[in-house]
Amino acid sequence: MKNCRPSKVMTAHEAVSRYVHDGDSVITGNYTEGLPFSLLFEIIRQRKKGLTYYSQSGSADVEFMVAGDCVDKLCTAFLHKWGGRAAGGMVERYQRAGKLQVEDYSNFTYNARLAAGANGYSFMPVLPSIMDSDVFKIRDYMGENKFGVVRCPFTGREIPVVPAANPDVCLLHVQRADKHGNAQHWGGLGSTVHACLASKTIIVSCEELVDFDVIKSSPHHTIVPGFRVSAVIEEPYGCHPSELPGYRNPDMTMLRFIDNSFSSDEGLRSMFDEWVYGLPDRASYIKHYIDVFGVESLNRYRARSYYSAPADYGVAFESGWDTYGQALLLGVDIAGLEQLIAEKGDLVDVD
Amino acid sequence: MKNCRPSKVMTAHEAVSRYVHDGDSVITGNYTEGLPFSLLFEIIRQRKKGLTYYSQSGSADVEFMVAGDCVDKLCTAFLHKWGGRAAGGMVERYQRAGKLQVEDYSNFTYNARLAAGANGYSFMPVLPSIMDSDVFKIRDYMGENKFGVVRCPFTGREIPVVPAANPDVCLLHVQRADKHGNAQHWGGLGSTVHACLASKTIIVSCEELVDFDVIKSSPHHTIVPGFRVSAVIEEPYGCHPSELPGYRNPDMTMLRFIDNSFSSDEGLRSMFDEWVYGLPDRASYIKHYIDVFGVESLNRYRARSYYSAPADYGVAFESGWDTYGQALLLGVDIAGLEQLIAEKGDLVDVD
Amino acid sequence: MRDLNAPANPLETLAYIIAQQIEDHSVVYIGTGIPMVAGILAKKTHAPNITLVYESGGQDPIEGDMPWSVGCPMTWRKSPTIMEMSYSFAQCYNGYVDIGFLGFAQVDMYGNVNTHMIGKDYHQPKVRLTGSGGNNDLSSLTEKMVLVGLQTPDKFPEKVDFITSVGWLEGGDSRKEAGLIGNGPAAVISPWGVYDFHPASKRMRVKSLTPGVTFEIAQQLTGFELLRPEGEIPDTKLITPECLKIIRAQVDPRGVFTTMPAA
Amino acid sequence: MRDLNAPANPLETLAYIIAQQIEDHSVVYIGTGIPMVAGILAKKTHAPNITLVYESGGQDPIEGDMPWSVGCPMTWRKSPTIMEMSYSFAQCYNGYVDIGFLGFAQVDMYGNVNTHMIGKDYHQPKVRLTGSGGNNDLSSLTEKMVLVGLQTPDKFPEKVDFITSVGWLEGGDSRKEAGLIGNGPAAVISPWGVYDFHPASKRMRVKSLTPGVTFEIAQQLTGFELLRPEGEIPDTKLITPECLKIIRAQVDPRGVFTTMPAA
What we know:
Distance between the termini of chain A: 23 Å
Number of strands of chain C: 13
Oligomer: heterotetramer
Number of helices of chain C: 7
CATH superfamily of chain C: Glutaconate Coenzyme A-transferase
Structural class of chain A: alpha/beta
Order of helices and strands of chain C: HEHEEEHEEEEEHEHEEEHH
CATH architecture of chain C: 3-Layer(aba) Sandwich
Strand content of chain A: 15-25%
Mean pLDDT of chain C: 87
Low-confidence stretches of chain C: none
Distance between the termini of chain C: 22 Å
Order of helices and strands of chain A: HEHEHEHEHEHEEEEHEHEEHHHHH
Helix content of chain C: 10-25%
Radius of gyration of chain C: 18 Å
Strand content of chain C: 15-25%
Structural class of chain C: alpha/beta
CATH class of chain C: Alpha Beta
CATH topology of the largest domain in chain A: Glutaconate Coenzyme A-transferase
Number of domains of chain C: 1
Number of domains of chain A: 2
Radius of gyration of chain A: 24 Å
Strand order of the largest sheet of chain C: 2-1-5-10-11-12-13
């Protein structure tokens, strides 16, 4: 994947303009934590249309994308109830009005579609419990391709399968990333890794853009390698009002404000005018939050630090080959190495 | 999985006596680092018979298990060449003598068998490149069940699949674990996670038995949850002479000594008499190493520390519910919570 | 702090009844709400060695941190591991989870569960509910599946509006004939009663009732004909004063899940 | 320290030729041995923005740390990520890897690769080799697949003893007809020549030869009939003095992979 741009570091505006197109399929990579609201707001602000939107555990992200008239088709496993029981949220209203198609999977089958996509498979087996449920039988825009059935050649049993999902764009908010796009995320992951690796283009926003040194000392926290990422946005509070381990808890002040907006017939329209269309970017969103609710409210949800015990990645020799004396990785000298190569008999270990 | 033993912490002798039985299938969970040599030596010492042995990137582990007459069937993707090109290693000698059946997979197809097992599937799709190779066509003890073919219901294409592998026992050596069995491992993982989760019984040896506090502060390094683990052995140098990030590099002194043992007709017999059968446990193995090669040799391969940057797992409130004032996780008071529950209308969120 | 001496309310009773289903040393898949109270209560009382598994991937977070939902950080806060979700579910599928609790908006006479929608037309829902989440995924996996929810005739209909998770399907051998593995639902627990399923017909049957609730009252709260067990119907064992104090003082001191909603 | 001014040996030339196949900004799947030298050389010279991917799951370890094999800690030492192996391979399968180098013990006239065994009977191997490792897995995945190894008539037989990785199968359209995706092998590189495959017959064809090696010499080193390209056979571009110095001073200062073995 050749990627010759001078830099991947850009603004949310630039990333969404460049990489999200009308008609695309777009997935929120985050599970329930760190939802990428800055990127979602930007998509709504740029009035993208006709998207197929994937959200595993849909919450305000789904409501916003639907209310922003961005989404024609929704693929999900769970929808948090917004707007109270009577009125219902935007998904319900749009679905009843025939303006939104919804394809329901379960958590595991939703994940399996992404796992297939991440592996490059066209399908993936799923758990048999799905076959006799209405999740299997009732189909919306996926039609015949929502589920299929194959016969296991080893057991002879019929096994339900799901088709791969390879969304055009994955939106991901993480704790830290570097300028190459290496993105580190910890906490509850759900299907996040599969969502990233299955997607064709990945946009990462992060609380902090950090030195490569930080990333390379903690490689197991990197959930998506830099070369797969097209854009990196340093965006403090990029997931507000949702929570992020190490940074903050859910901002209930804002969430209750949002919940209350559903009660008007207009739904989220006036909230959008004030908070989405009315503000150019995330920095002004946070500034507006402070103007409206006060900085104390913002700080109230700030996390108290709880740091991981370090993992020691040390090896005996800083380099395998260019240190002094006989302290090579292999502990042998040149003669010994020549002998090893002669014994191996091949230039290339047939790996 | 009810597990009512008073403690999982035991010796390698006790763990192997209790959990490895003649005829079992046994897998080495580690990829190329941290091979569980203490546990493997114990299996050889206890003269277990008729095992089916899985090793993805087989090295001295395979040679030893075969030379110990423990293994009838070998499942592998790669075999490091021991014993020089002419004589060949034990696998070659046993295979030619008709005493060992070898089933060859590729790295990906070997992994896919474990991934299927870890997921509870009976089969898993694999990459199409396998179908026209002799890896697919030439079959040993797996016979018809080595590979199968299904037709993808979405694309109509024929896709090769592998059967699940669920080994009876997984042997795993890690950097640290707690007494509950929570095992933390970092470095090159290969198929380690799948190998553990696919196996029915897991035996963990670790360099250090650590406090639960260390484990719970770094949950993403835990590759197998405690409740899946049957035995935990605190076994410093449990993987010697193979390397382990944070502890040591490969001990080339020992590895070359081992390699030289292949040159005799007896193969590894005299090496075994001295180092395996002749020593009761790992502590005496290390003591013997020091007697033979000197403590300087042991220390030469010791790692210099290189610690990970911490991840901050902090949240705003130490507990969601029992802190003072209104600083609850949700930032609402009792009245607000009652209202939320009333709005939800269910006792149980339909998750 | 809550009044530790007030009589138990139905939610506290429910949490206790659920907790009694949990054996020590078992692995428990926990859903949001009352099952969380029950799981923590069990761990603090008769079952200190259980492992609580959440679909977020967290397992066994520190005691006393009641999560708000199965997706919240409290499900992995100071947990010894956080797995990817697929591995978390796979543990059930491989038979390593002993008991799981599923919530429902509706449950029918054969233990089929609906958490998707109320109404006759999926595309024109009267009420759109949350959807499956992990509900379906757990339903044929866990060794012992327990359904938990409120009981009204609407919530206990003859046939659910949407089968999110398959229970005994159409009763009799229909579940087995459909090729489903797993043991099927073992019990339904509401504040008013504990129900099991008739071994042959797989129809819902009274097992025990909350003291003060008669068979007739239970029937009136049910949208289909309940089966009556042989002999006398036992009272459900009520929460002990000790457990009540533990719920109020330690497990749910703010009464988030165990305070009765205002009418 | 090695003599920086001595003439290039064939291994150094080979590393240089391989490095020339690597374009800047590409993603490169690296096998053990000379490809590691080539990848690091490319990164230090004309292609500083490449990503080196190892099957161990490591990517882009710090420059200059030459791994001993694709499974050694140097493949992830100070690497920004360590993936599980299945994800590492999946990147190829999804088309994100631009070029990969496969080693061989034997390669035949259609680019089929053997790394399993020498002999006619799998169960009675004359020599048992390492097996596939990731060789087969990469063979139909990478956009551009380059085969690298030594050249003798035994190592370039008409038909390999065991097909570890499928190249052009039996030539012509046979690969396509077998349903394989991927572009098939693009080139074979030995110390003596660079070879490609005839567009129609898919038979191995000389592309360029190391200066001093004639077509006849190359043919003598090959166990099947090599195709001759139209017109004059170009010389393979030789390693520049700058690159030679970089290999000897920085990439492989101890000559582990680029010192000629004693005869």
